[in-house]
Amino acid sequence: MFQCIVSVSVSVPWFLQMEEVVVESAWKKLDDAAVAGRRITFEEISGVVSGPLQSPVADGFVLRRNIHVSLLSIVRNLACLKGSSLSSRGNEVQPYVLNNNRFYPYFKDCLGAIDGTHVRVKVARSDAPRFRGRKDWPTQNVFAACDFDMKFTYVLAGCEGTASDSRILKNALDRDDPLVIPQGKYYLGDAGFMLKSTVLTPYRGVRYHFKEYTRKGPQNARELFNHRHSSLRNVIERSFGVLKKRFPIIGSGTEPHYDLETMTKIILACCILHNFLRTVDNEDSLLDEVDNELNERQQHNVSSSQLREEDHRMGSNIRDAIADQMWRDYQNS
């Protein structure tokens, strides 16, 4: 068990609680025939998501084919918890926003942030060009939404590494199991997304990242908006960072042993386990590491992208109203 605890970077008390809750929930949804009447432990679940055949955790059981099949069955069945484990607060104001006068009431309708992250995949050589995007090797672009508690509220894995964030967002909105954005609500996205009423992006050509404001504070409404937008939106980058550090099978950068379909299920399982850990132990020791890495690689400009005129106008109006109200309050404070 100790090796398993180390592999998923979680303290002993929370590990034991996670084992009880997650295994019990997943077990209820298992097909008994798939595991031949054998009860699967959380150590075995962790063996899959923390990097099977690549870590000491795997040595004791993955080599046995029947247990290996059981592990993959557990990962598949963890996906059954998606509805209860990956969900948003709906119309409720996010507590992080509500309790911070830098963000409330300006971002009271914000559900969280969206972005994509790349995870290495194993595909046929003929398929590799479709998956080889910004990396030198094939990847899948994993799209996700998260709230300000760093919990994933929507995950769409399996998209080609060459797919743009905007294209994947469109796919997420049009699917049978779509990303649901209630009327009047929105997510924060970076400049890789198109500005629209449901996705607010930064102003272009204006200072954005936190580091750019360390010497000189915001000088106008647009700079203030970008500064606070950046402060809120980085929650998705931090969430991805912690996820990849906790589960090396996602973040190691080595070619996985599993095919694309299986890796897609493993990523979903990792996100579900991540959410559970955020619920029981939000003082995450990995956050400091992630924050240091993010600070080192922050870019100093906002990239440009093609915008749709109609939705751009709607999103621009919402953004301008927030920025102007914040600037008035900022000047009077």
From TrEMBL:
<protein>
    <submittedName>
        <fullName>Protein ALP1-like</fullName>
    </submittedName>
</protein>
<keyword id="KW-0479">Metal-binding</keyword>
<comment type="similarity">
    <text>Belongs to the HARBI1 family.</text>
</comment>
<keyword id="KW-0539">Nucleus</keyword>
<dbReference type="InterPro" id="IPR045249">
    <property type="entry name" value="HARBI1-like"/>
</dbReference>
<dbReference type="InterPro" id="IPR027806">
    <property type="entry name" value="HARBI1_dom"/>
</dbReference>
<dbReference type="GO" id="GO:0046872">
    <property type="term" value="F:metal ion binding"/>
</dbReference>
<keyword id="KW-0540">Nuclease</keyword>
<feature type="domain" description="DDE Tnp4">
    <location>
        <begin position="114"/>
        <end position="275"/>
    </location>
</feature>
<dbReference type="Pfam" id="PF13359">
    <property type="entry name" value="DDE_Tnp_4"/>
</dbReference>
<dbReference type="GO" id="GO:0004518">
    <property type="term" value="F:nuclease activity"/>
</dbReference>
<dbReference type="GO" id="GO:0016787">
    <property type="term" value="F:hydrolase activity"/>
</dbReference>
<dbReference type="GO" id="GO:0005634">
    <property type="term" value="C:nucleus"/>
</dbReference>
<keyword id="KW-0378">Hydrolase</keyword>
